[in-house]
Specification:
Radius of gyration of chain A: 33 Å
Radius of gyration of chain B: 18 Å
Strand content of chain A: 15-25%
Structural class of chain B: alpha/beta
Largest sheet of chain A: 6 strands, mixed, barrel
Structural class of chain A: alpha+beta
Number of helices of chain B: 8
Oligomer: heterodimer
Distance between the termini of chain A: 28 Å
Strand order of the largest sheet of chain B: 6-7-8-3-9-10
Order of helices and strands of chain B: EEEHEEHEHHHHEHEHEE
Shape of chain A: elongated
Number of domains of chain A: 2
Strand order of the largest sheet of chain A: 3-4-9-6-8-7
Chain lengths: 453, 241
Amino acid sequence: MNNLKLAIRGVTRNKRRTLITAGAIALALTAMIVMNAFMDGSTKQTEDKVIESTGHVELYATGYYDKMRTFPTDIAIGDLDKTMVEIRGMDGVTDATARITFGGLTVHGNDEIAGLFMGIEPESADRVHHFADQVQTGRYLTPDDRDACNVGYRMAELLHIEVGDTLTVVTQTAYGALTAVDLTVVGILATLNPMIDEAGVLLRLADAQRHLELPDAATSIIVNGEDPGKAEKLRDDLLATLNAGVKPEPKPTESVAPADDEEVPLFAEGAPTGGFAVPKEQVEAPTKAGFEGYTWYQLNYLIFELLDFKNQIMDIIRAIMVILAAAMIVNTMLTNVFERTREIGVLMAMGAKGRQILGIFLGEATTLGAIGSLAGVILGGAFGLVLQNVGIDLGDQFTTLIKIPMDRVLYALVRPMMLINAFGLGLFISILAGLYPAAKAARMQPTKALRYN
Amino acid sequence: MEAVLEIRGLTKSYELGHLRAPALRGVDLTIGRGEFTALVGPSGSGKTTLLNIAGCLDVPDEGRVILAGEEVQNLKSGRRAEIRGRSIGFVFQTFNLIPVLTARENAEYPLILGGHYRRADAAEKARLRKRPAELLTELGLAEYLNRRPDDMSGGQRQRVAIARALVTEPTVVLADEPTANLDSHTGTEIMKLLKEMNERHGATFLFATHDPLVMSYCRRVVTLTDGRISNDGTQAGDGAR
């Protein structure tokens, strides 16, 4: 007869009570495992989607990042072709694509909406962002699609755009002149990136360069390496190489606008601003020397802070579940101690010391915890694996509602460590919860315990 | 006769609200090895209190308790537990067997709790392992070794309790009303068995009882009245009443 056998016999005295308590532990752990699996799954999905949407590293001309929310086109990377060749030839770079991002108005018929426009290199952009896989209707852009575009499906719904329609884009050139461009819609995309789905218009980089007067330039270069986890190193390597020998940008001239009393004809032919005839020496070039770079994590830190916040909320829920399970164990073990008070007296009469009584009841609490935890891990693991394969469809409105690039179908992600941790936690909580009742039993006076009815 | 239990000037009182109720008022008693003694007296006379103090379950207010040559009244609870496990066997009125253990396991439990296996060498360990079954067989329970208490009669349960009390070969067995929950026929059987154990193994027994049946089997009868020994006499102790 050993301690384990005794503990197992102890917990089988009142099978129904044991079943209820072990069931509560199992239920709490099952819920916790499924919750954790969904948390990990959704975080991983978000991470993947964010990386797909952002790339591993984004490079800008120096000063762009601080103003990027206004989509500036006058802080651009110049010498693009040469720069792209240099980047693509670097060690650790698996792919790179250039982009011009700009703001403006999308007009279709009588409807208009503020739009986010992206001039992309269709082939390399597809390798990084997998746009071709996200075509809902029509087709993805090709390098030969002059003045064609893809639009986000939500915007298409809002503006009643169909494939083959022409929409007008009103924006400013890199020199600040207003311009309007007609684009033919060749495809509608459902990217699960709310910014693109709701307001995105994708056109060729070459068209964007032409319309924005940004020849051989881009506002950003997206670079992928072999491992998104090593994006920081990739960024540092890129910046070290690209910024080598770059002289600091001279301070911009005080004013690029013509003097008040100077007569300037509007929309002068051949002027570099696309409209204003400004003396060349007063025009600041939109391309800037020097690069700055940001990793996918830096560019989406708000999303990850939100995920952290979500984790904190889940921690609170987890703690509540653990406390409930622990309360159940304390209740069961206290009932056991009260019911067996006389027996405790007999054990003491037979020579059991306080620590032996403590050991007996802690052993029972541990056994109870182990049974519940094992059941919880099996149930939670099985349930989690089912949800890992099947997933839960959160509906079409989900990504729009939470404004985070995410799949509408949420998949759990069950990791072995998750199950081991859950089992350990269940066992630890059971032992902790068993301490008070066990200590109460160990502190009993033998004569009082023997007299207990 | 060698004294296994010596009690000198024992007093004990209990608090009842604001009052202190004396249970023992200066008891002197010596129990010799192999004695079969009944401690009798009306309810509240102090029998169980005396048994508890003699069994190291409780401590006296004053006086000395010497068990197998060791003064025990001032020992710490852990040491008293050790002495209980090594030197004292208990038989209770309500048997108090552990319901989830079989007869053999119940009889063996004091060997585990008292650390007897831990202290024994291999040969002694082997002897100890056989002892619960041997005792139960001796007490007529050879067929019931693997039965749990719920599947046994009152008499059978009390026999398991006797085996449990004797398994550690204690200095003294203290039995509190061992026949109170048994019919007279079973009670007689139990007393005969206890007497046999006393004669065969030389085990010392001290009973606290009201039962004339128990008294009739004891050679010595000590009467407690209001916490004092009022009579201490001997008789045939052959079960005749």
